[in-house]
């Protein structure tokens, strides 16, 4: 039995990842370290309550002493690092915590992993040769695209929001621990995720919630911003693959080749709800769509070229946006 530390497992992606990962890897004990900020919710992990190979620890990834004790106590052999401040709008209002959690927190984890697994640069302690640090990052580090082109692993970084800048900073610290100390790291940069358990502040849960409550459904600007949407379980499968079969020091872009603009997304959700839960007045939910002032610095388009993970690691998105959004709406309706 090998102990793996997962950070931020009570958040949206982590809580979809954990049940899948624990079931798939029967020889792992998984320790979920999460601070339970406003974004973390243990309710998202109720299916793991009492699981013999799962343990929850409440704590801050910036807490050096606690992390050091955890590595020793649990004999941690791998890290999958999700914990972050993740909402762009919040990073505009309060950037400081983004720099602290995303940059300093990542640094603390890397340094403790290095101290526990290695005795000097490029020299692993006996038995720790395969210990790996997987860093979960975002395509937002690449900045914005015009109407053409895709982000690949070699696209220069050009982050535009405090959130993406802090994730870019964390990616660089991860990179430096590989090049300077020989730490076994892999970074994944993923496009926008959607699916069950996402925090209500994000676009898709907001659209579903506002629709059902009869309130205006807010859409930024003219609704023309484009994202490359990936169903969260496809992301989880990509992370599991990259953790087990990725090449040390490499980065892998993960994206579903599902570019959709916000107008399409909002209209699609309204159409699904019109069918599954018609409005009492017989009108379409689309009548609630309301355009609001755009987010400052709002990137126009993100889109991922996933060729590297598809060809080298044999990953492929199993859902397209239309199949995934149907499942997502069903989940939110079942929760009501
Ligand atoms: N959501 C997306 O579309 C998306 C896309 C690509 C990459 N990512 C990345 O994936 C990761 C997870 O994203 P998410 O959407 O699940 O985020 P989330 O905001 O839903 O969850 C983040 C989790 O981290 C925890 N956390 C925050 N600060 C912490 C700290 N100091 N110490 C310990 N735990 C802390 C929170 O309590 C929460 O459970 C992030 O690193 C994010 O940058 C997200």
From TrEMBL:
It holds the Pfam family GDP_Man_Dehyd. InterPro entries: dTDP_Gluc_deHydtase, NAD(P)-bd_dom, NAD(P)-bd_dom_sf. It catalyses: dTDP-alpha-D-glucose = dTDP-4-dehydro-6-deoxy-alpha-D-glucose + H2O. The keyword Iron does not apply. CDD domains: dTDP_GD_SDR_e. Keywords: Lyase, NAD. It is an enzyme of class 4 (lyase). Its EC number is 4.2.1.46. It comes from the Bacteria. Residues 5-328 form the NAD(P)-binding domain. NCBIfam families: dTDP_gluc_dehyt. Belongs to the NAD(P)-dependent epimerase/dehydratase family. dTDP-glucose dehydratase subfamily. This is dTDP-glucose 4,6-dehydratase.
